[in-house]
Design brief:
Elements lengths: L1 E3 L6 H10 L3 E5 L2 E6 L2 E9 L5 E5 L2 H4 L5 H19 L1
Helix pairs in contact: 1-3
This protein binds zinc ion.
The site of zinc ion (ZN) has 8 residues, from helix 2 and helix 3.
Length: 88
């Protein structure tokens, strides 16, 4: 799990995601399934009551607090959906 602070922390993972292009499946708003080397990982994007945004992924890297390409792949979909909801 990591706390989303800004785009800078995501740059490396975005580069990797663009190369690998994982499949992202929508489960429900804030919950996505992303294809990885060993099957699908679940990514959960949350915002708590203080406005702190966190992203969780079930892969090994995310367990150690790393920003993985699964998380950023799901996050790009999540941010797009959140924008749509805000402007609807
Ligand atoms: Zn991951």
């Amino acid at each position: 799990m990591f706390i989303l602070k800004g785009i800078d922390q995501l740059t490396n993972a975005i580069t990797k995601a663009k190369k690998i292009r994982p499949r992202v499946e929508f489960d429900r708003f804030g919950r996505y399934r992303v294809s990885g080397s060993k099957g699908y990982y679940t990514v959960i994007c949350r915002k708590d009551e203080r406005g702190i945004k966190t992203v969780e992924c079930t892969c090994k890297g995310a367990e150690k607090g790393l920003v993985c390409y699964h998380a950023v792949s799901a996050l790009s979909l999540h941010i797009g959906l959140a924008r749509q909801m805000a402007t609807a």
